[in-house]
Amino acid sequence: METKKIRVRFAPSPTGPLHIGGVRTALYNYLFAKKNNGDFILRIEDTDQARYVQGAEKYIIESLNWCGIKFNEGFNVGGDYGPYKQSERKQIYMQYAEQLINNGFAYYAFDTAEELEQMRNRLKAENSSTQQYDTITRGSMKNSLSLHREEIKKRLDSGEPYVIRIKIPDNEEIMVNDIIRGEVIVHSSKIDDKILFKSDGMPTYHLANVVDDHLMKISHVIRGEEWLPSTPLHVLLYRYLGWQDEMPEFAHMPLILKPDGKGKLSKRDGDRLGFPVFPLQWTNPETNEISSGYRESGYFPEAFINILVFLGWNPGTTQEIFSMEELIKAFSLERVGKAGSRFDPEKAKWYNHQYLVAKKDEELANLLIPILEEKGIFSEKDYIAKICGLIKERANFVQDLWEQSYFFFKAPSTYDAKVVKKKWKEGTPQILMELKEKLAEIDIFNASNIEENVKVFLEKKELGMGQVMNVFRLTLVGSNKGPGLFNIAELLGKEETLNRIQAGLDNIN
RNA sequence: GGUCCGUUCGUCUAGUCAGGUCAGGACGUCAGGUUUUCAUCCUGGUAACAGGGGUUCGAAUCCCCUACGGACUACCA
Questions:
Q1: A201 beta carbon < 7 A from strand B?
Q2: Which positions of A are annotated as active-site residues?
Q3: 0.90 exceeded by pTM
Q4: Which of residues 257-276 of A touch strand B (CB under 7 A)?
Q5: Considering only CA atoms, which of A122, A119, A124 is closest in space to residue A109?
Q6: Three-class DSSP category at A196
Q7: CA-based nearest residue to A223, from A276, A293, A176
Q8: From CA A314, how far away is CA A337, in angstroms rounded?
Q9: Which of A183, A287, A316, A464 is 20 to 30 A away from residue A207, measured at CA?
Q10: Does residue A225 reach within 7 angstroms of strand B, measured from its CB?
Q11: Is the CB of A390 under 7 A from strand B?
Q12: pLDDT digits (tens, 9 = 90+) for A253-269
């Protein structure tokens, strides 16, 4: 009987914008929490002050907001386990580092960068299988295990910079139980004495995440596969800190891979790939370089979430379209795959299309109106909604709506030369003139009446659809594109339709 | 180099834990149909168990090896 409250966290580092892999990590955490009536916590891991990027935190919040991913606790919303920024928890970590030292699980180290470099080079030259600071090498380095007590005290008292390293046990199999991958066993000799506490007074990720997860009562750590190799170290830390019994469960998700070459998708991929890697547009504060975002590219947040969730998870059914509510119901870590996945821009478009088509015409009108106004077009919402209803099947993005509908708002000023050449025959003007007269007689100018009249007209004149409709379309649209012509004519209205035919007769030859 | 993880259509994947339907779906692509055009849509096709050994009556599924890919290997997270 598992009665423990489910608490998971998303712990990004504010080193830049979140990319889609990060959003997916947040999403899986969120879904898992909500599915299990648990809490979802946002913690900022800013222990590396050197890599701090202005605006990154705000970007993270805004992105997740846009996605509809909500937090129960976090530096932005508060909570009982704060502060939720590691830089504000600075004083907490030292005591745990000291506790580890006092219990013989960690030690001070005074080696300079050059000395570390030398050690690694020496091992490399010796063809050693590892170049680690470990049970073999630590005796020859400058640390509180190798130095005399007075020497250590002297160095510490004089304020010499030091780090604190974990003392990895000699000969032990360390087992990690991963929900997605099963048991992973690593021998302690393959792990090095990682730095837990840096000389700048900040903990490293390894110490901070273990301490915080414990203090924040995190029940499950769901993170990217890149953390799997260091998880045995974390397991050791839980044990040495005396928290083994409350250690969270681990789930390491597969990575999102670059669609072209190799390797995991990274922030640096920017727009190089032909699709955004960021949820929101991002302007690099240093270079002012702009990277596109899904929001600005016209993706609906629901579609974006739907696309992301399927990169590594599937429901085991044939259902493809999921609302957030449905995802919460359906999600489980057991159905997360093991292998990395590539983003498919084509399928992403299809997803967005599904969401666009499902939207109400009025809703689409609201989205199209700003685009129209930008172009100086002001029109009735009802009219725009009707147009959206007619063309939405043909669009993937809101922007496409304009490309599919511009001719409703502006009479053609030019006519597609190819179509003119192909369809505009000698007898065409005469036919159009007569058609215009026939259309002028229609009282109720709706699609079905227009269609009926046109067909009668065709029959009487012994003309085929193709002879008339193509040029009729040419006068109304200016090209051979668009939805059903009778529908276009109806929406345009009788007067405008007749005007456009006349304009065509005047201008095409 | 070392450690760990992984490998089913071009892509996302179901099927693997409890071996037994022509290996299923979606995107893409191709063909046909609908249509006045373009798009949508409908129908159909295409295409995969990385390779090799075992175990078994029977292996995508269990075991071993190989290959390939990826992650990690910082006083970064």
A1: no
A2: 267
A3: yes
A4: 257, 262-264
A5: A119
A6: strand
A7: A176
A8: 8
A9: A183
A10: yes
A11: no
A12: 999 998 775 788 888 87
Query: What's the confidence (pLDDT) of residue A426?
Result: 85
- C1' of B69 to CA of A37 (Å): 38
| Per-residue pLDDT band at A336 (split at 50, 70, 90) | very high
Say yes or no: Cβ of A484 under 7 A from any atom of strand B: yes
Number of CB atoms found within 10 A of residue A9's CB: 29
**Burial class of residue A466, CB neighbours in 10 A (0-12, 13-18, 19+):** exposed
Instruction: Using the structure, give the distance in angstroms from the CA atom of A154 to the C1' atom of B37, rounded to a whole number.
Output: 88
Number of neighbours of residue A263 by Cβ within 10 angstroms? 11
Is the backbone of residue A63 left (phi > 0), alpha (psi -120 to 50) or beta? alpha
Residue with structure tokens 């003392």? A167
Are A291 and A277 spatial neighbours (Cβ–Cβ below 8 Å)? yes
Structural domains in chain A, CATH included, are 1-75+255-358 (3.40.50.620), 90-206 (3.90.800.10), 359-409 (1.10.8), 417-507 (1.10.10.350)
Q: How far apart are alpha carbons A421 and A419 in whole angstroms?
A: 5
**Does the C-beta of A435 come within 7 A of strand B?**
no
On the question of pLDDT at A379 being above 80, the answer is yes
For residue A83, say if its preceding peptide bond is cis, omega within 30 degrees of 0.
yes
Q: What is the pLDDT of residue A214?
A: 98
Residue A436 contacts residue A428 (beta carbons within 8 Å): no
The answer to whether A368 CB is within 7 Å of strand B is: no
Find out whether A257 and A22 touch, Cβ atoms under 8 Å: no
From CA A448, how far away is CA A444, in angstroms rounded? 10
- pLDDT tens for A314-331 read 999 999 999 999 999 999
Q: What is the pLDDT of residue A270?
A: 67
State pLDDT tens for residues A182-219.
999 999 999 999 999 999 999 999 999 999 999 999 99
Between A323-337, A389-403, A409-423, the lowest mean confidence (pLDDT) is in A409-423
Residue A1: pLDDT above 60? no
Write b or e for each residue in A308-343: b if 16 or more Cβ atoms lie within 10 A of its Cβ, otherwise e: bbbbbbebeeeeeebebeebbebbebeebeeebbeb
The backbone region for A423, taken as left when phi is positive above 0, alpha when psi lies in -120 to 50, beta otherwise, is alpha
Q: How far apart are alpha carbons A236 and A11 in whole angstroms?
A: 21
Nearest DNA or RNA nucleotide to A185 (CA to C1'): B4
For the cut 50, the answer to whether the pLDDT of residue A158 exceeds it is yes
